[in-house]
Amino acid sequence: MKNEQQAEGRTRHGVARLLLEQGPITAAAVAETLRISPAAVRRHLDTLVANGEACMRDAPRRGQRGRGRPAKLWLLTETGRARFGHAYDDLAIAAIRFVAEAAGASAVRQFAQRRVATLVERHRGEVLDTPDLAGRTKALADALTREGYAASTRRVGTGEQLCQHHCPVAHVAAEFPELCEVETAAFAELLGTHVQRLSTIARGDAACTTHVPLGDSRIAEPGDTTTTEGTPS
Fold first, then answer.
1. What pLDDT score was predicted for residue 58?
2. How far apart are CA 126 and CA 190, in angstroms?
3. How far is CA 186 from CA 41, 112, 133, 227, in A?
4. How far apart are CA 100 and CA 94, in angstroms?
5. So what's the pLDDT on residue 199?
6. 3-class DSSP state of 213
7. Residue 69, class by beta-carbon neighbours within 10 Å (0-12 exposed, 13-18 middle, 19+ buried)?
8. Which of 47, 85, 178, 230 has its CA at a distance of 20 to 30 angstroms from the CA of residue 185?
9. Long-range contacts for 164-168 (Cβ within 8 Å, ≥24 apart)?
10. Among 12, 85, 82, which residue's Cα sits nearest to residue 46?
11. Do the Cβ atoms of 83 and 16 come closer than 8 Å?
12. What is the pLDDT of residues 126-173, one digit of tens each?
């Protein structure tokens, strides 16, 4: 009985991780990816929902509206994301509040810049070793995944979208958006082109999504990179 419960727990964790990394996602896609039965997926999803760790929404219809119910998409809630690590959030927020009160907003931005610079420098070489912009974006996603951001890329129109399905500092960034702003600027500098942040977990979105237009694949000179912020209308 204990072994069965442990196996169930591992499978449920696998379902939750897939929602984290690929959500919003259909139950059928979860079953296919994890190679478990649709009935088992439904059971685990129902448990995650009952625990407040997952939620469901209708998939957007594409093209001509058809008959029947729209597909259902599953994704993690903020409670579900917490199982993958929001450790020390309260301490971090208290510490940055103190910095802001003692030294002002500029000190918070300087802290954010140093934090991101440390992360970026660990992976700068492997990203810049890739000659084309799409390849650099994929290398950056791989690096972010190793840092705990569960990142991926996908082609959308004439650009790449860099999606971070997890943010270890989302709760902190919700109060201090400088962390997101500085991260976006660092991505632009590293990739050598302007980028646009479309969504963030800190603002309540399902993922942090950054658009990288491939039409402008120049390598920018230091200090010559433009970043834009905003959510598409």
1. 85
2. 11
3. 39, 11, 15, 9
4. 10
5. 95
6. strand
7. exposed
8. 85
9. 164/201, 164/207, 164/208, 164/209, 164/210, 165/20, 165/21, 165/22, 165/23, 165/206, 165/207, 166/20, 166/21, 166/81, 166/84, 166/85, 166/201, 167/200, 167/201, 167/202, 167/208, 168/85, 168/86
10. 12
11. yes
12. 999 998 999 999 999 999 998 889 899 999 988 999 999 988 888 899
Kindly state the average pLDDT of the residues 207-219: 78
Q: What is the pLDDT of residues 222-231, one digit of tens each?
A: 333 344 444 4
Q: How far is CA 154 from CA 58, 92, 129, 188, in A?
A: 22, 32, 20, 17
More confidently predicted of 231 and 119:
119
This prediction has a pTM of 0.65
